[in-house]
Amino acid sequence: MQVAQCVKIKVRQLSFAYGDHTVLKDLTFDVQANTVTAVVGPSGQGKSTLLTVFNRLWEDIPHARLAGTVRIRLSGNERDIYHRACSLTELRRQVGMVFQTPNPLPMSIYKNVAFPLKLVGGSTRSQTRDRVKRTLRQAFLWDEVKDRLKDDARALSGGQQQRLCMARALVLNPEVLLLDEPTSSLDPAATETIEQLILSLKTACTIVMVSHDMAQVERVADQWIALREGRIVAD
Ligand SMILES: Nc1ncnc2c1ncn2[C@@H]1O[C@H](COP(=O)(O)OP(=O)(O)OP(=O)(O)O)[C@@H](O)[C@H]1O
């Protein structure tokens, strides 16, 4: 059966500047739902900046400004994420992010994944337990940590820490997952596991990832956006 494609993210005439340094210039593109889109290009071209546009993470940076529109289909409705009616808390729940260097919180493996649920509130202890277990399975980590859930998360290997961070981002069921060079600090085996994980997550969410590694992009991405001097180029 053919699954109808729908547009998840609609970017129109997006420009972005830090003070008088314009980093993104007049970008227009769509991201289809349940796909992996890679953002590629040389260093300093605005790839990480573009990711932060999708969850408004840049907004506290002094003198940073954005023009154009970014619409994301969330809970079935297309939303202008910069409209004042769009709640930042809700946006951040639905658009998760994982960074280049794994950043586990200084607490147990279990508590790392349970943390966002605790912040949001409303889950019983057994609901939290079930959700943490399900998410650790989804992040390909359960079998490796099920007997040491109370251990400090910082004792895990780099690859395990990154999968834990993916689990922490996934536990609230985000519709969009932003990954900023998620494997750049990992060895080839850990990288392969994360790539398998990314592919498996396509059924659950739409992924936008920054990568410097074109071989990786070929392996995991359905489309890519190449940035050069702030514009999209066709390579
Ligand atoms: N908070 C900030 N304030 C001012 N300028 C910034 C800020 N963050 C990034 N920049 C500048 O914006 C430009 C784009 O940075 P960005 O990190 O988005 O690029 P990138 O393509 O992700 O780079 P890399 O591949 O090296 O991570 C760079 O010139 C950078 O110095």
Q: Could you explain how this protein is built, in words?
A:
It is a single chain. The protein has a single domain, classed as P-loop containing nucleotide triphosphate hydrolases (Rossmann fold, 3-Layer(aba) Sandwich). It is 34% helix and 29% strand. The protein has helices spanning 47-55, 88-94, 109-120, 125-138, 142-145, 158-170, 188-201, 214-220, and strands at residues 7-18, 21-32, 36-40, 64-74, 77-80, 95-98, 176-180, 206-210, 223-228, 231-233. The chain has a six-stranded mixed sheet with strand order 6-7-8-3-9-10, with helices on both faces. A four-stranded antiparallel sheet has the order 2-1-4-5, covered by helices on one side. The longest helix has 14 residues, at 125-138. The protein is globular and about 50 Å long. The two termini are 32 Å apart. Bound molecules: adenosine-5'-triphosphate. Adenosine-5'-triphosphate binds at residues 18, 23, 41, 43-49, 61.
Give a quick precis of the structure.
By secondary structure, the protein is of the alpha/beta class.
